[in-house]
Every structure is written in structure tokens, then in C-alpha cells.
Write a structure and sequence with these properties.
Order of helices and strands: HHEHHEHEHEH
Shape: globular
Bound molecules: flavin mononucleotide
Number of strands: 4
CATH superfamily: NADH Oxidase
Distance between the termini: 36 Å
Number of domains: 1
Largest sheet: 4 strands, antiparallel
CATH architecture: 3-Layer(aba) Sandwich
Strand content: 15-25%
Structural class: alpha+beta
CATH class: Alpha Beta
Number of helices: 7
């Protein structure tokens, strides 16, 4: 799809068919995430690919009971590699760049999923420690986003956006 059509067509999907996600599609999504720009090209993130029912349930519970996570065929967990970024950029790497690296990678994955005809939703409301435990993310690894994805079992409705003039200022506040 053309880029501007793709971003207009994307809406969050929170109900999924049982139909599996083809491995080739998943690989293209992961490759897209891997093309994201990162601070110093350090790629200070890891993506955990979760397919097991047991682990998906743990993630759904960690995400304050958002059980749609457990019905998605694939769940990606984006984790910031704080140590990796802090190693070069100290505080800025620790507090900002690693988080941004993982965030941008997730945004790329979300758009790639749309291109592949899959639905997904960014899940940010979760207990960070519980998610880290579920995916065995060690010290210095900070879960940033959970992205359940699969074939949509619902027609998502378009959400409204603030008016352009409310979001943008020219030159200064
Ligand atoms: C940082 C962030 C956190 C979010 N957390 C959740 C969440 O925990 N659960 C959920 O259902 N949706 C979550 N969303 C999805 C938003 O609700 C959704 O993107 C927004 O309402 C706009 O709708 P759209 O994605 O259909 O354009 C989150 C999105 C972002 C970017």
C-alpha cells in the first residue's frame, strides 16, 4: 500500500482470528523493525517473539488483564536495552535513547504489520516487572511495549485526532 494510505488505514485491533501468522510475514515485520533508526546505530532493543499460550497468558495478566493479548497468535515484546545505550551515552542513553530505540522499532513493526494485512495494537499499560519476569528480561532490560498481532477478527473503528492547529505551533510556543 502507498505509505499515506497505509497510515490512514491503520487502526488498533484488539480481537484476533485463530489463524496463524505466517513465518515469512513475521520475518518481514521483524526486519522492518530492524531498519528503524536508533541512537548511534546501537539498536539498543530486543524484540521477544511470543507464541506460547502459557507466556501470552502471563503477558495478558501483566498487562492489567488485557486478555486480548492471550488470543493473538503472535505477541511481540519490545524491550529497551538500557545498558547497551548507557555504555556509550551514559544518562541520556539510560533515560532516553534506549527507550526511543525500542519505541521507534515498535512503530515500524506496527506499520509493517498493517502492510502485511495483519492487525495489532500497541499495549503500554502493564506492570513492568511482571512483563520483564514473563519474558525473562534481565537487569538493564526495560519492557517498553507489547504488540499482539494477528488477523483481525473485528473491523476497527477510526479514532479521532486533535485538530492540526491544536498539535502544531510554528517557531515557538
Ligand atoms: C504508548 C501507547 C500505549 C498504549 N497502551 C494501550 C493499552 O495498554 N491498551 C490498549 O488497548 N491500547 C493501548 N494503546 C493504543 C491506543 O489506545 C490507540 O493507539 C489510540 O487510541 C489511537 O487509536 P488507533 O491506534 O486506532 O489509531 C496504546 C498506544 C500507545 C501509543
Amino acid at each position: 500500500m502507498r505509505f499515506f494510505d497505509l497510515i490512514e488505514a491503520r487502526h488498533s485491533v484488539r480481537d484476533f482470528k485463530e489463524q496463524e501468522v505466517e513465518e515469512e510475514k513475521l520475518q518481514r515485520i521483524l526486519r522492518a523493525a530492524n531498519t528503524a533508526p536508533t541512537a548511534g546505530n546501537l539498536q539498543a532493543f530486543k524484540i521477544v517473539v511470543v507464541r506460547s499460550a502459557e507466556k501470552k497468558k502471563l503477558l495478558a495478566e501483566a498487562a492489567l488483564g488485557q486478555m486480548f493479548i492471550s488470543i493473538a497468535p503472535v505477541v511481540l515484546v519490545f524491550v529497551a536495552d538500557i545498558k547497551r545505550s548507557a555504555g556509550r551515552y551514559s544518562d541520556r542513553g539510560r533515560s532516553l535513547y534506549a527507550v526511543q530505540d525500542a519505541t521507534i522499532a515498535c512503530a515500524y513493526a506496527q506499520l509493517a504489520a498493517q502492510e502485511e494485512g495483519l492487525g495489532c495494537v500497541w499495549v503500554g499499560a502493564f506492570d513492568e516487572k511482571a512483563v520483564a519476569k514473563a519474558v525473562r528480561a534481565g537487569e538493564g532490560m526495560k519492557p517498553i511495549a507489547i504488540l499482539p498481532l494477528g488477523y483481525a477478527a473485528e473491523t476497527p473503528f477510526p479514532t479521532k485526532r486533535r485538530k492540526m492547529e491544536d498539535c502544531f505551533v510554528r517557531e515557538e510556543f
